[in-house]
Amino acid sequence: MMESLREYLKGHRLITDGAMGTYYSEITNNPEAFAEFANIERPDIIERIHNEYIDAGAKLIRTNTFAANTQMLGIGRDELKKLIEDACRIAQRCADGRAYVAGDIGPIKENAESEGSAVEEYKMICDIFLDMKVDAIRFETFADFDDIKEVAEYVRSKSDMFIMADFCLNKNGFTAGGISAARIMQQAGQMDCIDSCGFNCGIGSGHMNNIMQKLTFAKDKYMSCLPNAGYPEQMNNRMVFMNNASYFCDNMQKISAYGMNIIGGCCGTKPAYIRELCRRIGDAVPAGRTETSDGNEPVNGNNPAEAADIRVNEKRPNEFMQLFKSGHKVVAVELDPPYDAKYDRLIEQAQYLKSIGVDILTFADSPMGRSRVDSVLMSLKVTQETGMMVMPHVCCRDKNVIAMRSTLLGAYINGIRQLLLVTGDPVPSVSRVSTTGVFDYNSIRLMNFVKEMNQEHFADEPLYYGGALNVTLGRIDRIMERMQKKIDNGASYFMTQPVFSKEGIERLAIIKEKMDTKILCGIMPLVSYRNANFIKNEFIGIDVPDEIVARYSPDMSKEEGEAVGAQIANELIGQMYDYVDGFYFMLPFNRVSLMDKININNR
């Protein structure tokens, strides 16, 4: 019987296997296939791969389950359970006292619709691994600790399982979530529920070495490093990795010298790579390394890989946040960007709103999933033409992490300093044949992404961002719980959906009393009977009471409808004035003339 993994690591460096997916694709000549299905359909191939790695010298193999989740494979939980169990049996049969077996878990893509479900599925997968009595559970290729922490704590509540957490970096030393390698190390140092932490996939051994040599490692954690063989090239319509085991191991020797406890390979590596690792490096326990004292020490320097938990040092006051601090009731007005290239009218509207004392203009990010001028670019155009303070909405629907980071950097260097971060409306069903929503993350994850960018890039003059708030949708404790998550991820203020009802006003008062944050109350002056009915019946989450609709009639003139809308808006402002921090006006059809009829300083 093998000693425990923790005991083994006290006296040895642990060498793991290499890639499963890319090696399986090479063997089967099928780059499109999910290797995970072979646990059931071709267990002989998976067994062959495991045995080749063990024969090459690997002392830990990973179950063939990286993409084994219901979303990635498109299967139900019963079928998933069988697939994972079969994967464990195959790996354990091959290991049989020669190697340890780690239950392998890859990230589950979570979007607006599936928020929270990923954690429950991770827990289910971990339960299967616990039942199958694997030697370790390994989270690999993750972008942040958000889900890992909760799931690892869940596992630790049931077992003393050895837990490994590895993250995927780009060439600049950042994860897809915008978190630097140094921040990962700091966060790992604060987590008692994981045993090892490190990096895998994403980059080759050369770039990995450049990052690792500058890092200060997490205290009291075993460190791991499993880079790719390099970068794939396209040959005969296939993405293939060059066979460069010697170069790979040259770099791995350097990386190992920094004090790595666990080494191996990821995409493109094969048994020959592991054999060479064992020959050159071996399993001798690594020498000491530079560690943080408690996971909180800052690491100085300008290299992204040296970035740390930099506290925002506000050298330049943010004009928008200064309005809140002064006690001024902030007035924000939302304008819809045009559907086409005609923007002159919108500039005129912005100039008018500036003349009557509006503090800031906000621009929606293609609301209702229908394409309009980009909210960030529209904001830049307006502020250049009018000098108005602007706040573009940024939603998760249309951009992946790469595009989002580019957008935020572009907004920043052009002077934008405040944003409204929202999940975003889904693409209309009629458009989904030709258009798909991205939704790589929801608003909370996007906030964390911007928070990390503030710490890494914008510390002297950070971006301030707010979140959406719907005071009428759901239980009030759940609403406040979600608000707190946004606050924890850096939100400085909230802007509500339009509030019309007595219940909405009462809920807003309770939320404002209990939550330590700034709130702009949404006001929408409805302009006609048709407009009121449309908002009441077509917009989920906007509660328009019957008595509000009853104040309009189908035969009202445009002027009469606007007068009623302005009167209702003034009444609502008066009822909420004393406990909100300002108002956020959503003007139907960009009718800025409505603001003439609204007393924005109503007491």
From TrEMBL:
UniProt binding sites for Zn(2+): C201, C266, C267
Alphabetical UniProt keywords: FAD, Flavoprotein, Metal-binding, Methyltransferase, Oxidoreductase, Transferase, Zinc
Cofactor: Zn(2+); FAD
Pathway where this protein functions: One-carbon metabolism; tetrahydrofolate interconversion
GO molecular function: metal ion binding; methylenetetrahydrofolate reductase [NAD(P)H] activity; methyltransferase activity
InterPro entries assigned: FAD-linked_oxidoreductase-like (IPR029041), HCY_dom (IPR003726), HCY_dom_sf (IPR036589), Mehydrof_redctse-like (IPR003171)
GO biological process: methionine metabolic process; methylation; tetrahydrofolate interconversion
NCBIfam families: PRK08645.1
Protein's UniProt name: Hcy-binding domain-containing protein
Organism whose genome encodes this protein: [Bacteroides] pectinophilus ATCC 43243
